[in-house]
Amino acid sequence: QGFILLDDVACVGTELSLLDCPHSNWGQHDCSHAEDLGVRCSPESNTVMDGRPPVRLVDGESTKEGRVEVLLHGQWGSVCDDDWTDRDAAVVCRQLGFSGTAKARAMAYFGEGHGPIHLDNIECSGMEHTLGQCATPDTRIHSCWHTEDVGVMCDYVEEKVP
């Protein structure tokens, strides 16, 4: 269900991330969901420790925006908006392969998530390549509710009002 984000992925096998592989432009494809794929990792080969929790955007109007969710402990969860800034949004967008201006959104701008709230009080300089380089995943009790879920708008262009 939902968007098909990648097509024509051509990895050689030495990349640290699927996003490092050549691929078509985001959202451009000639696929159907009947062609969706998956992987099964064995404990011996699933040892890449590159500091990235996988990140996705959900409930946006395009593939360039949405609520930020990260995959930790096998479960997708949201990020709390305490200290969430455009610098943090820029890192998320960069991790997802976007290079334009990033705009942070707070207070469940793209709706409330339903899973756990995985991260809080993220502080990125804006130069990191992944969200995992900004904050250590922390599953301790935090002071957030889903009304504080963060979102981002990648490749953001401000519309000028005439």
Automatic annotation (TrEMBL):
<feature type="disulfide bond">
    <location>
        <begin position="11"/>
        <end position="21"/>
    </location>
</feature>
<feature type="disulfide bond">
    <location>
        <begin position="93"/>
        <end position="154"/>
    </location>
</feature>
<dbReference type="Pfam" id="PF00530">
    <property type="entry name" value="SRCR"/>
</dbReference>
<keyword id="KW-0732">Signal</keyword>
<protein>
    <submittedName>
        <fullName>NETR protein</fullName>
    </submittedName>
</protein>
<feature type="disulfide bond">
    <location>
        <begin position="124"/>
        <end position="134"/>
    </location>
</feature>
<dbReference type="InterPro" id="IPR001190">
    <property type="entry name" value="SRCR"/>
</dbReference>
<dbReference type="GO" id="GO:0016020">
    <property type="term" value="C:membrane"/>
</dbReference>
<dbReference type="InterPro" id="IPR036772">
    <property type="entry name" value="SRCR-like_dom_sf"/>
</dbReference>
<keyword id="KW-0325">Glycoprotein</keyword>
<keyword id="KW-1015">Disulfide bond</keyword>
<feature type="domain" description="SRCR">
    <location>
        <begin position="1"/>
        <end position="42"/>
    </location>
</feature>
<feature type="disulfide bond">
    <location>
        <begin position="80"/>
        <end position="144"/>
    </location>
</feature>
<feature type="domain" description="SRCR">
    <location>
        <begin position="55"/>
        <end position="155"/>
    </location>
</feature>
